[in-house]
Amino acid sequence: MEKSDKLLTIGQFAALHGINKKTLMWYDEIDLFRPVFIQPENGYRYYSYHQSSVLETILLFRELDVSIGEIQDFMKNRSAASLERLLKEKTAELEQTMEHLRAVRKTLDNHRRNMTTLLTMDLSEISIVEKEESCLVTVDIDPGTSFEKQVEMITAETKKYQLHRLHDASYGSMISVEKLCQGDFDGYSSLFIEIPFPIKRDGLHIQPQGRYVRGFHKGRWENLPSRYQEIFAFARRQGVELTGFSYEMGINENVVDRVEDYIVQIEIPVKD
Fold first, then answer.
1. Residue 130 is inside which H or E element, if any?
2. Per-residue b or e along 93-115, where b marks 16 or more CB atoms closer than 10 Å to that residue's CB
3. Greatest CA separation found in the chain?
4. Which residues, listed in sequence order, are joined to residue 49 by a DSSP beta bridge?
5. How many CB atoms sit inside 10 A of residue 188's CB?
6. For the chain, how far is it from start to end, CA to CA, in angstroms?
7. Which helix (H) or strand (E) is 35 found in, with range?
8. Are 32 and 71 a contacting pair, CB within 8 Å?
């Protein structure tokens, strides 16, 4: 073959692009990407360096999970317009995937922070902490809302905000400081979901930035009122006034089986 020295063997071409030569053989078999020359005597495949850009486009599409069928359609009708359309579509899908991964990362960070709290903090301690503003999706409830109904409403909200699973977000319950001061420890007004990615929509509850009194309760719910009494006594000693809502969130649900070991984080805003 006179021009074989100007071409690349299948092994050389595969190595150039960091793939297995069996991939090139398969692409040839399905008529997706053909060698520029096949030696009639032995069937050896040869490729031109100038085919590299086409192969790299195919490999990019495969990395973006574009189906073989879609790539074959593109290859049959290659044009700047069709490439621009496909890349735009896949870029949008990639952005969604990246946003989901950022949300997963935030969820993992929250879980890790909670575990660090469990391992390092004195859970009997009550303190004043600084918090950034956050947006919460809320579901209104009252003492008559059944547990089944609460689960149904929360599940609907997670689907609305395109969460893959309930535990892709942090969630908890809200009760007003006014009701707590009145001794109504069962008057929860809302369940909340803290979405782990930025959203701007009407109807969200703003958990304000600022100082919060933070405490923890371990054990059964019926003992929670006594913990609130300790938190309010702490606030009086510190000379601060509590306002708004108390935000309750479980922090160790994924590592305990008994309700006696369940830990609730309680955060209540301090009035400026």
1. strand 127-131
2. eeeeeeebeebeebbeebbeebe
3. 96
4. none
5. 21
6. 86
7. none
8. yes
**What type of residue is 83?**
L
Amino acid identity, position 133: E
Q: How far is CA 131 from CA 173, 212, 237, in A?
A: 18, 7, 21
pLDDT digits (tens, 9 = 90+) for 13-46: 999 999 999 999 999 999 999 999 999 999 999 9
Q: Which of 205, 217, 194, 226 lies closest to 266 in space, CA to CA? A: 217
The candidate with the shortest Cα–Cα distance to 235, out of 207, 269, 265, 208, is 269
Other residues' Cβ atoms within 10 Å of the Cβ of residue 15: 13
Write the DSSP assignment of 83-112 as a string of letters: HHHHHHHHHHHHHHHHHHHHHHHHHHHHHH
Name the 3-class secondary structure at 47.
Answer: strand
In tens, the pLDDT along 148-205 reads 888 788 778 777 766 655 455 678 899 999 999 999 999 999 998 877 666 666 668 8
Contact 189, 140 (CB under 8 A): yes
